[in-house]
Amino acid sequence: xxxxxxxxxxxxxxxxxxxxxxxxxxxxxxxxxxxxxxxxxxxxxxxxxxxxxxxxxxxxxxxxxxxxxxxxxxxxxxxxxxxxxxxxxxxxxxxxxxxxxxxxxxxxxxxxxxxxxxxxxxxxxxxxxxxxxxxxxxxxxxxxxxxxxxxxxxxxxxxxxxxxxxxxxxxxxxxxxxxxxxxxxxxxxxxxxxxxxxxxxxxxxxxxxxxxxxxxxxxxxxxxxxxxxxxxxxxxxxxxxxxxxxxxxxxxxxxxxxxxxxxxxxxxxxxxxxxxxxxxxxxxxxxxxxxxxxxxxxxxxxxxxxxxxxxxxxxxxxxxxxxxxxxxxxxxxxxxxxxxxxxxxxxxxxxxxxxxxxxxxxxxxxxxxxxxxxxxxxxxxxxxxxxxxxxxxxxxxxxxxxxxxxxxxxxxxxxxxxxxxxxxxxxxxxxxxxx
Length: 435
Ligand code: ADP
Hints:
It is a single chain. This protein has 435 residues and is an alpha+beta fold. The chain folds into four domains: 8-106, no CATH class; 112-199, Beta-Lactamase (2-Layer Sandwich); 204-274, Helix Hairpins, CATH 1.10.287; 282-434, Heat Shock Protein 90 (2-Layer Sandwich), CATH 3.30.565. Helices cover 55% and strands 18% of the residues. It has a five-stranded antiparallel β-sheet, sandwiched between helices. The two termini are 80 Å apart. Bound molecules: adenosine-5'-diphosphate. Adenosine-5'-diphosphate binds next to helix 10 and helix 13.
């Protein structure tokens, strides 16, 4: 600061000297011709002209040739010129740096295997990397095209329009029927969007193989299990069965029943996974269905002797698949009966909760510690494996409930406290309900 002030003062001093010299020379000439003050006025005017000329040269340089050498100017003008060039040099340097960063960012995005597409606030495609041409089939003419005219898959359109991009979606490729890609949108800037897509064909095929394998194994096991249980029943009905063998036969029968239940549940799960999200949409009379399920539960409850209560507070019906809903609700009631010590209280409800309608089962049984709750709907996840096996559980019941709820656009909510009891609540949105 002090440096620039000093140099500015130097330049002002130079200008001042020039002005004094000019005035003195003109004063002398004016003295000789007898008009000294007019000559001084002329000197001042000449100095002003010189300043204007310098200003004009500076202006022309800035306007037309700022990239070329600056003009040679004296006095305060050279101080000004010096500062302008300094700013110019530093601006030039930062522009170069910025261009370097932009070009590096573009090169690295271009090198990505994931497709990256920039979409502006009006949903027009702005820019994309080479991977986007391979994965999404974008071509040079697509710049400025509406993304929804380009990606017309209904799943993508509803994902794009609903605005909640916390999840990714899997889509079938429209350029190669055999390929699949995972797609994620992110908002940035002024409502612009960034679309990232990557190929998941291998994962998709592996998942398909796993499903097919489980499906095939379950199908293949069905017939041998039916034969086994048939023979076991027949032998056990024989009055002359050797008593030493009866215990063994009884255990074989129990295990065969368990295996049959596992196979049945696995087949149901696989059917739920394979059918589309918009399953059947039959009107299910909930009060009627719940009464039917409740009667079956009473029979199962005979040996547990719990107090079972059914409270139907809403008369709304569900649009859905009866068989699947029956499975889900039965699983929840059976679990409550199984995991509550004898003589407990179990409350089954169907009630309105704002726009939604809920089915809930509350028990005062053994409860579940909080760290298990998030994992309960995984296949074969059990809090206590021995207890589950003793009660004839397959470990698939809650996985089935979760899938049934997904199919009906609802969700399963679990709250529980160890030794105090649990509530399993199935929440159905208004789109799935009829008065
Ligand atoms: P399972 O066939 O073993 O009952 P589920 O998938 O139905 O399998 O349930 C998973 C686990 O969740 C069970 O093993 C049990 O530990 C726990 N669980 C389910 N319902 C209840 C309940 N009402 N009270 C306590 N624990 C429960």
